[in-house]
Amino acid sequence: MDTIFTISFSVGLPKTSSTVCFNCHKKIQRSEIRVSKKKYDRQLYFHLPCYTPEHNLFILVSNLTIDLDENSGLIFENWLNSWNSHFLPPDPNISIAWNKTKSFEVPKCKRLRLLINVFEFLTYQDICCNLASVSKEFYEISWNNYLWGALFQRDFNKLCEGNECRKLYIDTFFNCCTRCGISSNKYIRCTLLKRIICKNCFESKSCELLDKNTIKRVYGINTKYLNLKYHIGNNGNRRLCYKFLVEAAVKERRGMIKNKVVQLLSDKYGSNHDMTKIVSSIDTNDMDQIRKTYYKITYHPKISNEIPYESYKMIYSAIRNGGLNFARLSKIYDLIKKDFP
Ligand SMILES: [Zn+2]
Ligand SMILES: [Zn+2]
What we know:
Largest sheet: 4 strands, mixed
Low-confidence stretches: 93-108
Strand order of the largest sheet: 3-2-1-4
Protein name: F-box domain-containing protein
Organism: Stentor coeruleus
Pfam families: F-box-like (PF12937)
InterPro entries: F-box-like_dom_sf (IPR036047), F-box_dom (IPR001810)
Bound molecules: zinc ion
Shape: flat
Oligomer: single chain
């Protein structure tokens, strides 16, 4: 796992042939590549083939001082590549990305760790139904507790302690509602989520099914930006998706556009400019306003009336609609020019 050790040394061609190799006690000739390494207060020298790094770790070139000519450089590069081929490069994302506070201790075996890291991106079905039958090694990994701990955390957003992560994962996957996490015997098997939803959750507002036109009408956002999967409705041409999935995707898209606009504005006008500050304070979780008239319901952007700028209204709509193109952006810049003469 993560380690505080690094390997560093200097490598070069000696200027004299008077230094002696610490390993074989023979003189190091001027034509031979010499590794020099400080240990405590002593400077130790080695022939390159006599030198074995003190830790079994990947060597980063940035930790070395290299002074070699073209020929010896190639020899050293070969040596380095062959040493490094046994180890994984240090990876800043070693702890699993979906939980920054806990990392899993994977046994030191490089291949196993590598494979587990790859399997962590796959689904339960991929691992149990397909990969487990590929080879003995894959089969064994499909039972690996670390792997299931990581999958559990990824899919259920909870830590899984103990040695039975696989069992717990499968129990949770098949018996617990994908929305509330509670196990219930009244449930619906959902083909879109490939999980079950309990009857309570299924009948709640968040599991309402919305079609593409409704999504566009309510959230003002083009569904091409949302990257959603849909059920095909009964009559064959309605694409339906759960409201909670739609809302999560809408939130993500708007957040992304907002960050982009804030970035553009602060690059152009500075982060202290009024418009940059106003846009930074837009709450992308709450941008839709429902208006009921006596015969119908309409949805509108929740624009603040206290901000008089036309440019603000335009930016607000762009974020809400999840779309920002060049034409719109240049219009926004024109309006800002008018609003802040
Ligand atoms: Zn030697
Ligand atoms: Zn539920």
